[in-house]
Amino acid sequence: MTNACLWVRVAIGREPSPSEVAVDSQSVETATMISQEVGYDAGKKIYRRKRHLTVDLLGLVLRVLVTSASLPERTGAKKLLNRVHCMGARLNRLHTIWMDGGYRGEDFMRWVMDVFRWIVEVVLRPLEKKGFVLLPKRWVVERTFGWLNWCRRLSKDYERLPETSETFIYIAMIRIMVRRLA
């Protein structure tokens, strides 16, 4: 979590450390096929990269991981949650992680509880509903993906290295936070 993220949280009257976060991933079309970190997304039938995000409930990005689209969501989430855990004392209040149905699975939930002592809450879409459904707590990460897509550079993945893509996501988020503080 950057200092700007702490400042934004404090400026609106929140604690510096979030107690709940949301995690999700988004497949993004790539402009280059040179990289080894590009994989085939069978659901969309195209070569892509996957952006895994952890955001607090204000929509501020805590950690990002860019991987091949062929990497399963739970595997990407494990790598992402390890990055979140490395933030240490800056997330000392964290206890709940909100996720969608792609992260469902007792083994994954048990792993998160055993390793990090966090509770995983999976929010599923109601089966009887058709079309768009606003899911509690989970809409925050989707809104953050929308904010990031406002940046022309992030509408598609143009980078050769996944680390460069991650850096551009952090830069875009810093820009959003500075506008909030201004």
Summarize the structure.
It is built from five helices and six strands, in the order αββββαβαβαα. It is an alpha/beta fold and 182 residues long. The chain has one domain: Nucleotidyltransferase, domain 5 (2-Layer Sandwich), CATH 3.30.420.10.
Number of domains: 1
β-sheet strand percentage:
15-25%
Rounded to the nearest angstrom, the radius of gyration is: 16 Å
Largest sheet geometry: 6 strands, mixed
Q: How many DSSP H or I helices?
A: 5
CATH class: Alpha Beta
Task: Name the CATH superfamily assignment.
Answer: Ribonuclease H-like superfamily/Ribonuclease H
- Write down the secondary-structure element order: HEEEEHEHEHH
Helix content: 25-40%
| Alpha-beta classification | alpha/beta
Q: Identify the CATH architecture.
A: 2-Layer Sandwich
Coarse morphology = globular
Task: Please state the average pLDDT score.
Answer: 88
- Distance between the terminal alpha carbons, to the nearest Å? 19 Å
Number of strands: 6
Tell me the CATH topology: Nucleotidyltransferase, domain 5
Poorly predicted sequence stretches spanning 5 or more consecutive residues: none
Describe the 3D structure.
With 182 residues, the protein is of the alpha/beta class. It has one domain: 2-Layer Sandwich (Nucleotidyltransferase, domain 5). It contains five helices and six strands. A hairpin with a 4-residue loop joins strand 2 and strand 3. The longest helix has 20 residues. The relative contact order is 0.20. The model has no long low-confidence stretch (mean pLDDT 88).
